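Discrete fold record:
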Amino acid sequence: MDFTLSPEIEDIRVRTCRFVEEHVLPLEADHDSYDDHENIRLDVLRTVQAKAKAEGLWAPQAPKEYGGMGLPVVAWAAMYEEANRSIFGPLAFNCAAPDDGNMNLLARVGTPAQKDKWLKPIVEGRVRSSFAMTEPAPGGGSDPGMIRTHAEKKGDGWVIHGHKWFITGAGVADHFILVARTSQDPRRGLTAFLYHRDQPGWRILRRIPIMGPEEHGGHCELVFEGLEVPDENVLMQVGDGLRVTQIRLGPARLTHCMRWLGLAKRSMEIAQTYVAQREGFGMRLADRESVQIKLGEVAHQIQIGRLLVMHAAWKLDQGDHARKEVSMAKLHVADTLHRAADVAIQLNGARGYSKDTILEWIYRYARQARLVDGASEVHNMVLARFMREEGRDFWRWSAGNRV
């Protein structure tokens, strides 16, 4: 395992860093760039996305033949971290959730016809997408085995009824991936379907207000009242819905962590700038031991998170599912992001609590990190299960020959 970035990946990282500095951060600093939901205005976004495309910094996770960069996962880690130095960065490069995870999923398991119809427009930035899995209680959440939305066979297709909620981006999405129950088989009872927003038989019940800020399209509650999907729009095979969720959510959890590390580092950047110039009681805040301890502790946690993320990324590139490595990264980085934002606000005082910096934005955003794509408690349970099953091998090193 070598943590040295190749010259090609390092070039991408440096160019991403420069692009964010020159083209994205100025937009973030301009209040007129924001929409009513505290995200970048879509017309402003389209302009900066065109610049990113022209620079060859576009859709790093997507295959080259569909317009992406076709990068390995370790390169995503390097690029995404730099991209999310700004809260607008991932959108600028088309590597933000939920499109990011949906592109990776479709690229891996879609048929050639499905890739042309459903993947290519997302990669090109012509449409947005959404992944509809989570349901209100007693339906499926962290446990997809509890999904109640059901699809019944009808001729050459399926008719779907059910209820989903907290579906990210649904308000602006055109392409949807929907997970529904097609049998009571505990392992083969779910199936994934592709559908377009213009199809009848479904509707958005409401855009759920959240602690915010929000992604474009919000977090919506959906009702399915006879949505018809042809057989050709089944993703993978009937009964493969659980596999679809596993294939999508593993890398998607890790890309969340990559982006969160960028925000954690930005929080420290703002804090360091402030304490270096702010004086009180005869000395700079930066010279106070208590302040140095706070900054050092967060710096330590961020670096641990980077190593966990890169290790999991490396394992994914080796063809490993990296389930426990992804869970470790998800747990640690989610906590680290919240800690970084909290410390930065504390050190900035009232300035940090105000909207004069983006720290309060990051702080509110950070609270979701311990919930999305599996609550922290669920990932701790995953790790406990692996430790129970593997014993001492839980901590084994990857090696060519084992004794």
Observations:
- The longest strand covers residues 157-168.
- The chain has a mean pLDDT of 97.
